[in-house]
Design a protein that fits this description.
The protein has 19 helices and 29 strands. The protein is an alpha/beta fold. The protein starts with 16 loop residues before the first strand and ends in a 5-residue tail after the last strand. The structure holds adenosine-5'-diphosphate (ADP) and zinc ion (ZN) (2 copies). The site of one zinc ion has 8 residues, from loops. Its EC number is 5.6.2.4.
Length: 700
Amino acid sequence: MNADVVPTQESTEATRYWLGVALDVPLPGLFDYYAPTPVDAGTRVIVSFGRRQMIGMVAQVKAAPDIPPEGVKAVDAVLDDLPPMPDDWMRLVVFAARYYQRPLGEVMLPALPVSLRKVTGYTGKGARGGPVARVDKSKRKVAVVDAASAAPVQLNPEQAHAVQAITGAQGHQTFLLHGVTGSGKTEVYMHAAQHVLAQGRQVLFMVPEINLTPQFEQSLRARLGNADQPGLLAVLHSGLADGERLRAWLRISRGQARVLLGTRLSIMTPMPDLGLIIVDEEHDTSYKQQDGLRYSARDLAVWRGHDLQVPVVLGSATPSLETWHNAQRDHYQLLSLTQRARAVQLPQVRLVDTRRLALEHGFSPQLLDAVKARLAQQEQVLIFLNRRGYAPVVSCNSCGWVSQCPRCTAYTILHRTQGGRAHNHLQCHHCGYHAAVPRRCPDCGDQDLRPMGRGTQRLEEHLAEWFPQARISRIDADSTRLKGSAEALFAQVHAGEVDILVGTQMVAKGHDFAKLGLVGVLNADAMLFAQDFRAPERLFAQLMQVAGRAGRHAGAGEVIIQTDYPEQPVYQALLKHDYQGFARYSLEERKAVGLPPFAYQALLTAEARALKTAVAFLSEAAALPDTAPELYPTSDAVTRYDPVPLRVVRVANTERAQLLVESDSRPALQAFLTTWSADVAALATRHRVRCHLEVDPLEI
Ligand code: ADP
Ligand code: ZN
Ligand code: ZN
C-alpha cells in the first residue's frame, strides 16, 4: 500500500482512498475520485465523467480531495490487467505535460496503445505477464557473441573511439555522432547496442521513419537478435494495427523484448531496463509531432537519458543547429567520423548555373548529358525534386487565371493519378479539397489551360521521351499511397530493375542504392527563399542526404545541382561537403539576429471564422500579462511579438493567425508560459476561438 494513502476519518461507510485521476479531456488539472481499496499511482481506472465512461490514469494518491468529499464519485473499476506504470514513465509524461503546456491527461493517455485507453479495449486476456518489476533480470543476459558472426566488420579507429566513449560513459552523457552518410554511424550504434544488451539492459533505437526502410529493420534483427531470441526486437510506429502495436508495447514494457526500434512515438514507451537511447538522423523534422502534444522526441530522448542517467547518442551527417551548438559548448560530446567507412570517395558535387541557360523542361544540357553518360555505363540515376518548389498548378495561358482552392488561400495542385490509376484532378494540399480539372478557364473561357511548374509526374513523362530505353520509376507520396507500394518500388530499384528514379524527399532517406551513380537536383532554390528562417538549414541537410545516395559502393558518384544562385553559402558549403563551415556561418547569422538556438520560442496559433477575430484574440492574449503583472514575474525577459496572419491564412474556411513569444532564457520562458497558457485557454473559451500553443516550434 502506498504510504501517501490516508483513509478519511469522516467516512461512515467503507474506507475511501482519494485519487487524482488524469483524463484525456481538454481541461487542466486532475479529477477527484475515490476507490474502496488502495490504488497505486500509474494504475488505469474506469470512471464516469459527465455522461460518459472513460479510462483514466491515477496520477496522484491524495490524503483528501480538493472538492467536498460528498461530491466525489467512486471509480467504476480499477484495472489490474497491467501493473501500474513505472515511476520513470510517470516522471517523463509529467515533464512533457509541463514543458509543452498540456493537461497531464492529454499526455498520459494518448501515450498508451489505443486498446489500453478504450473502456471496451484491452481485457488482459491471454496477455497477462506479471508486474514488470518482478521479472528476473539475470535470465535476460543476451549472448551477443552468437550475433557477432553477422558482423564481420573491423571498426576503424574513429568508430572504435566512438564506441568506447559511448560504452564507457558513466551515468548520463549526450553524444553527437557526426559523420557523412556512409561513414559508418550505423556500425557504431550496433556495437554500442550490443555492449548494452550484453549487460542485460534494453536499447531504444529511434529512426525518423520505418515503413520506408524494411531492410534496416532486417539488418538490425540479424545483428542484434539471434536464433534463440526471435523476440528480442520490437518495432513501434504509427503504421501498425492496434493489436500489433499493443503486443509490441507489452513485450517491450515487460522487458521481454530488449531492443525497441521505433519512430517518435516510441519515446513514450515504458522500458524497465533502458540502458541506451539512439536517435538516428536527429535533425529530421519527423521527430517533431505536429498536432496534439507537439513534442520533440529527440529532445525528450535527451531528457529521459538524463533522468535515467543513461547515455544518449544523437547521430547525423547534418546535425540540427541546436544540437551542433550544444556540442560546440560542450553540453554534448562530439564524436566525429571524418571518412567514408569503405574505400569509397564522397560524390563530386557540381553546381550548374541556370541563369543564362536555356532549360529544356527544367533540365540543363549538362544534366541531360550526365544522365546519358551514366545510363551508358549501366548505372542508376536519381532525379530529385523538391516538392515544395515544384507544385504544378493549372493556369490559363490567355488571362493568367490559376487554379485556386475555394476554401484556402492556396493553389490546388494537378494530380494525374489516384490510387495508382490515371485520373486527372486538382487537389488542395492544405485542406484536401478535390475538383475536376476545368475544361475551360472559369474567368475568360479560353480552353488553353496548362500545368505550370513541374511535378514529379511531368518529369517522368519528359524523361521517358528523352530516354525511351530507360526503365523509369517514380517514388513520391502519390505513387506510394497504397500500403506496401513503397517497399515494392524500392525493392525494384535495389534489384536493378530501374534505371532512372524520380523522387521527392522520400527517396533521400536511409536507402543504400548500390548502382546509383548520379543524383540530379532540380529547383532547390525555391526553398532557399522560403520565409522560414530554418529553410536553408533544411535545404542543406536534404541535399547532403540526397547527395549521399550517390556512389556509395563503387566508382565516383556525382551530384549535379541546378541553381540560379550558385554563390549562396548553402551551395558553396555543399560543393565542399562542408557541414562545419555551413554551421559556423549559420550560427553566426542566428546569433547576430537572436534566433534559435540563441533564443527560445513558443508560438500561439489561433483559428477563427474571420481573421480579425483571430487577430483580436491574439492581441488580447499578448496583453494578458500586463493586466496582472504580479503573476508574470519573468515577463520582462520575454518578448511578445505582434500577431500575424499565417502564410496560408485560410484553411478549410477557417482563418489563422499566430503570435510569437521569445526569450533568451529557457527557464524565463517556461515560467511565463505556465501562467500564460492557463490564462490563454480561459480567454479562448470566452472568445470561442480555437488555439494551440507550440513550444520550440520548428516552423514559424
Ligand atoms: P552511415 O550509417 O554513417 O551512413 P553505415 O554504418 O551504414 O554508415 O556504413 C556504410 C557502409 O560501410 C555499410 O555498408 C557498412 O557495412 C560499411 N562499414 C561500416 N563500417 C565499416 C568498417 N569499419 N569497415 C568496413 N565497412 C564498414
Ligand atoms: Zn483565362
Ligand atoms: Zn484548401
